[in-house]
Amino acid sequence: MTTQHDLLVVGAGLAGLYTTIHAERAGLDVLGLEAGDDVGGTWYWNRYPGARCDVESIDYSFSFDDELQREWRWTERYATQPEILRYLNHVADRFDVRRHYRFGQRLSAASWDEGLQHWEVRTETGLTATARWLVMATGGLSKPQLPDLPGRDTFAGTVLQTSAWPEGPVDLRGRRVAVIGTGSSGVQAIPLLAEQASELTVYQRSANYSVPAFNRPIDDEEWAQQQRALPRRRELSWNGAAGSPWTSHPVPFAETGEEERRAVFEESWTRGGVLFAKAFQGLTVDPVINDAARLFFEEKLAERVHDPEVRATLTPRDHPVGTKRICTDSGYYETFNAPHVTLVDLRTEPLAEVTPTGIRTAARHREHDVIVYATGFDAMTGALTAIDIRGREGRSLREDWSGFPSTYLGIGLPGYPNLLVLNGPGSPSVLSNMALTSEQQGDLALRMIAHCRDRGFTSIEARADAAEAWTAHSLELADRTLFGSAPSWYTGANIAGKARGFLPYIGGFKAYIDRCEEVAAAGFRGFVLSSR
Ligand code: NA7
C-alpha cells in the first residue's frame, strides 16, 4: 500500500533528524526513510576503530534546544563515533522521532508527478509512498567508494571497509592487516589497527596533511567553563565562516615578523586538527602563506617520524596545506616508528593486483590476512545519483548530474519541483560544522514549504538561471583559492569519470546564511512558485 504524506525526509542523520522533529512541530505529516536500521547517518555506518569527529564536541551538537544542550555531557574534546551515536539516539528518544521513520529502507527511485503535484518514492524493499515535498538529507559523505582493483574480489581473507564497519568487536590480534587509503578515515584507524595487528602495512597513494587532535577528556571544571561560554560560542559559530567559534590571527600574515608567525602557527597547531588551516587569514588562498604553513608542518613531521625515508613518503606533495581536508589524528605519524608497521608508497610502487592471499605491487607480493579499505566516498552527489530521481517530464538527475551539478543555494534543483536537498553541492556544509548547517538547511527547507502552504502554492522550483548564476558564483569563489589545485573529493577528483569542479560553496557559512535570508525575504527570489 502506498502511504500519502505531506513530507518525506530521506535520512536519519543530523539533517534528517532535525528536519523531521521540526516538520512535526510545523504540523506536517512526515514520513522518514532511512537505509540504516536506526538513526545516526554517518555515525551509524562509520564504526571503524578510532572514528571521531574533527569538530569539537561542544560545537558538533544541536543548538536548537537549550535543555538538550545543557543535559548532554560530552566526555572528550573530540567525541568518538560511539559517543556521537549515543547522542543522536538520545536526540531521537527525547523528541520521540523514531515513530516517524521506517528503517532499513534505502530509496531506489523517486519521481515527480506534475498532475498530482507530488513525489512518489520507492525503496529497495518495495515500500512506496507519496508526498508533496521531498527532503533529501542523505549526507555529503555517504556513498562509499570501493576501488575497482584488479583481483579485488579474489582475496580469501577478511575484507573490511571503514564506512561499513561491522557492529561489535573485530579481533585483529595476531593478524597481518593491510590498509588502503590515508584520508581522515585511514589516518584515524591506523594507530588503533596497529595496536592489534601483528603486522600492519599501509598502502598510501597520496600523503595527506595530518595535525594532532590534542584530544583530552573534558573534566568537570572545563565542562562548567564551556557551559558558561556556550551562548557566546554559538553566536560566534553562527556568524563564522565554518560554523565554529575559531577565527584566524587578526594581523595579516604580511604584517607579521618571523617570531610572531611561529607563535601563530604554534598556537593554531595546538588548537588541533583542521584548525591549523585557520592560522592566518588567506592560508588557503595565498601561496606564500601556505608555503610558510607547509614548512612549519614539515618541521613538526620531522619530530614525529624517525626514519627519513618513511618521513619523505609521508610528506604531502600533491596539494597545498588545507586544500584537502586536514586530517585530525591521534598518534598517526608516530605509528610508522613501530617496527611492525610498513608504509608502501604506491607512487613509486604501484598496486598491481589483489590476490587470494595479499596484495601485489610493481615491486613485490605481500601476504595479508585482512584488507581494510579506507578509500573514501563519492562525495556530495553520489548518494543522490545512486537513486533514480526523475523530475519534470521524466528528466533524470543522474543524467543531469553527469556533468557538474547546478543547484540554487545547494537546496534547489531546476527541473525538480519540491525536491529540497540538504547540505548539497553549492552549500557550505561539508566545509562547516554539520550540526549547525543541518539546522540551517532544515529550517530553510521547512520555511520554503511553509511559504508555499501559507500562500496556496503547490510547488516551488529553482529557476535554471538562478541555479546557473549561483553555481558560477560558487565556482568563481573557489577559483580564487588554492583548493582547485588539489585532487580531492571536494572537486570530484577521487571518482573516475566524475565531472570536476569545486562542489561546496566556499564563501563561508555566514555569507551563505545571509544570501539565503535575502532570498527568503524577497519571497524566495530565484524560485518559481506555482499552484495547480
Ligand atoms: P578520503 O579523504 O577521500 O580518503 C580516501 C583515501 O583512499 C585517500 O588516501 C585516497 O588516495 C585513497 N584511495 C582511494 N582510492 C584508492 C585506490 N584505488 N588506490 C589507493 N588508494 C586509494 O576519504 P576518508 O573516508 O578518509 O575521509 C572523507 C572525509 O570524511 C574527510 O575528509 C572528513 O571530512 C571526514 P588519494 O588521496 O585519492 O590519492
Account of the 3D structure:
With about 525 residues, this protein is an alpha/beta fold. The protein has a domain at about 5-40 and about 95-145 and about 380-530: FAD/NAD(P)-binding domain, CATH 3.50.50.60. The chain has 15 helices and 20 strands. It has helices spanning about 15-25, 40-45, 65-70, 80-95, 185-195, 220-240, 260-270, 285-305, 310-315, 330-335, 380-385, 395-400, 435-455, 465-480, 510-520, and strands at about 5-10, 30-35, 100, 105-115, 120-125, 130-135, 160, 175-180, 200-205, 210, 325-330, 340-345, 350-355, 360, 365, 370-375, 390, 420, 460, 525-530. Strands 1, 2, 3, 4, 5, 6, 17 and 18 form an 8-stranded mixed β-sheet that branches. α1 (about 15-25) packs parallel to α13 (about 435-455) and α13 (about 435-455) packs parallel to α15 (about 510-520). The model has no long low-confidence stretch (mean pLDDT about 95). The structure holds ligand NA7. Ligand NA7 binds near residues 141, 182, 186, 351 and 489.
Question: Unreliable stretches, pLDDT < 50, 5 or more residues?
Answer: none
What is the class of the domain at 3-39 and 97-143 and 378-530 in the CATH system? Answer: Alpha Beta
Small-molecule binders here are: ligand NA7
Q: Mind telling me which CATH architecture of the domain at 3-39 and 97-143 and 378-530 this is?
A: 3-Layer(bba) Sandwich
How many helix segments?
A: 15
The description of the largest β-sheet is: 8 strands, mixed
Distance between the termini: 26 Å
Shape: globular
The CATH topology label of the domain at 3-39 and 97-143 and 378-530 is: FAD/NAD(P)-binding domain
CATH level-four homologous superfamily name of the domain at 3-39 and 97-143 and 378-530: FAD/NAD(P)-binding domain
What is the helix fraction of residues, given as a range?
25-40%
Radius of gyration: 23 Å
Number of strand elements: 20
Q: What share of residues are in beta strands?
A: 15-25%
- Class by SSE composition: alpha/beta
Mean pLDDT across the residues is 97
